[in-house]
Design a protein that fits this description.
The complex is a heterodimer of chains A (about 80) and B (about 300). With about 80 residues, chain A is an alpha+beta fold. Helices cover about 40% and strands about 20% of the residues of chain A. A four-stranded mixed sheet of chain A has the order 2-1-3-4, with helices on both faces. In chain B, the strands form four sheets. In chain B, strands 1, 2, 3, 4, 5, 6 and 17 form a seven-stranded mixed sheet that branches. Classes of the chains: A alpha+beta (about 80), B alpha/beta (about 300).
Chain lengths: ~80, ~300
Amino acid sequence: MAVKIYTTPTCVYCKIAKEFFTKHNVKYEEYDVFEDLTAREEMINKSHQLGVPVIDVNGEIFIGFNRSAIAKSLGITS
Amino acid sequence: MYDLAIIGGGPAGAAAGVYAARKKIKSVLITDFFGGQSLVSADIQNWIGVPSISGLDLGKALENHLRAQEGIEIIEGNFVTTIEKNEIGFSLKTDQNKTIEVKTVLITSGSHHKKLGVPGEEKLNGKGVAFCSTCDAPLFKDKNVAVIGGGNSGLEAVLDLQPYARKIYLLHRSENLKGDPVTAEKIKTDSKATIIFNVEVQKFIGEDSVLGLEYKDKASGAIKKIDVEGIFVEVGSAPNSNFVKNLLDLNKWGEIVVDHKTQRTSVTGIWAAGDVTDVIYKQNNISVGDAIKGVLNIYDFLKLK
């Protein structure tokens, strides 16, 4: 399971998504696209847009924190 | 079978849940997430009792207060898609295929960001057109941006962008800003911000990313263009009432029409409070009070039944 999250320092839904991962013991890699311009390019290529968060679950790309869709993709019930 | 279902987890829903639990009304609260629309606010300075709190912290405080109550069930990560009337009350269905049977319902489902509805807006969404200034402001570092809307959320967007953007145009449709004067004063004295009044936005320009926008100066009738790489649309909100549009009386804006003494809707057994209703002033503090009014009226209704 490879989970990546692209964030900015001020993004609230990014924080909520990360809390969700932590609560469900999901390991994730975080890329701050404010600082990291390579990651920003990668995020734009994957999602074809600029808004955060973008979440990559094994290559499945989610724009925004859609809890139920992401939970499903991670195999989390409840 | 519950006595009451509360739909929504913003300030109104949380307040209703606390009061319902303390009245020992057998209740369930169904929400996609806690905190309501203020969740993305960087700094709320008018939540009474706290001089300054972030939207995220306010959301957590509301959730914690609710979870501290005994005897209320919480279904999170769900939103209600239909309400059907039956012999004993109502049957609710959620997007996650849960069915909930209840005697009464309090709708506190809030509202969502309204779009401007001009050419280019949809196509460039996420490509420079943004709806969450706290989220996306850092991505517009050293860029020229426009904020559309001179209400409180527009003014806050300017403040969110202030540390990052090179130049901020605030476009407003009339001659006076609608937001709180305290915030407006900060913007008027900001060297980065330029306020343009009497604006009717015509279209957003750009193919793969935003290059600018065109607007009509309503005073002169002239069409003008500004070059920006980001556009933040903050033109108010629209009620989350679609799921009851065939059940309840709504006004022309889609807001649920309520009796403002009791929060009752046009259908006996269903109440509504907060931004989803035709309340004139959409405010966290008001939503809380209206939701409590609704619960107290529901308590009386259930007792007399």
